[in-house]
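In this supplementary section we document a worked example of the pipeline. Step one takes a protein sequence of length 367 as its only input; no multiple sequence alignment statistics are reported here. Step two produces a three-dimensional model, which step three serialises into structure tokens for compact storage. The input and output of this example are shown verbatim.
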Amino acid sequence: MAETTRTEAEDSGRDAPGVMRRGGFYNRHSLPQHEAASYAEPVLRQAAEAVSAPASGQTIVIADYGAAQGRNSLDPMRQAIGIIRRRIPDAVPISVVHTDIPADDFSALFALVENSPDSYLRDTANVFPFAAGRTFYRQIFPAASVSLGWSAIAVHWLSAAPATIEGHIWSPRADGPALAAFARQSARDWRDFLSHRAAELRPGARLVVIGGASDEAGDSGANGLMDMANEVLRDLVAAGHLSADEYRRMAIPTYNRTPAEFAAPFADGAASGLTVLHRQLDVLADPLLAQYRETGDLNAFAASCTGFFEAAFEPCLFSSLAEGRGAAERQSLLRQFRDGLKAKIAAAPQEASCAWRVFTMLIAKDG
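The serialised model returned by step three reads:
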């Protein structure tokens, strides 16, 4: 999730390195994120009940922070709008603003919002969708303009990878200075996120955040899958397909905070103006493993896990490839990686299963 501009590769219909695959690929391969967000939907409904009518002539603004390609936003937005509309008449306009980094596939998002039978635009009046291509580690909205904020499975992504990880790609497998660098970057980013939301929210507004997390022991629940991906990359280095320098630069720019790390800015005053009303840590039951147990189709399970990894993590990993590699060479390497990961998952499906930790917070703007 690195900020980039549109490139020649995208204009020619191919996916540029480091950029989320276009055409709704993430939407089709984000079932775990979709299931994780559902854990916070009761809290979102509670937050929507607290939305108050704005002053005459003003709009209710709902901010969807980190929307990706939109699939996992439709149901939460529909639920929130439904609750607000039961209390505030249709004459009051509602704006839904989906935010993400500039490289996001906003075309897929708007096609989904406009055309999906599950769109929040169905059976509603005076609701208007917008987008903002800006990182949520900066201020996106005017001061005191947002009535309700929602961020699902996004805040574990860092503004940048602060260090390389010796022999691995996954920050929980780091130690020493590298792990400390990721923890510091995460703390700065989380404080930045909260300070900008404190500026944007109206007094009394609510913000619901559900983020990828770790338990207090530092376990995110995904180490097995990440170890497999790392082993495939090391195999590619050994075979001479991936250079040692390219592999060394590969690091997924995420950090799954513990509950204590999520709470820290509220304890030390860094989240001034915000109050936590509710927080909970949950363990996500792997929906891909559940499908496998129901169908017994090992090949489909391996393909689903590989597609999930490809959609979520592959772009940032392979942005480290040498600039001199041609498009055909890059695509060949990506195919080798995907084939290798799928084979490892098929050989040890239980080890590849992810029991993601997710942390939900209901936050109020004071006043």
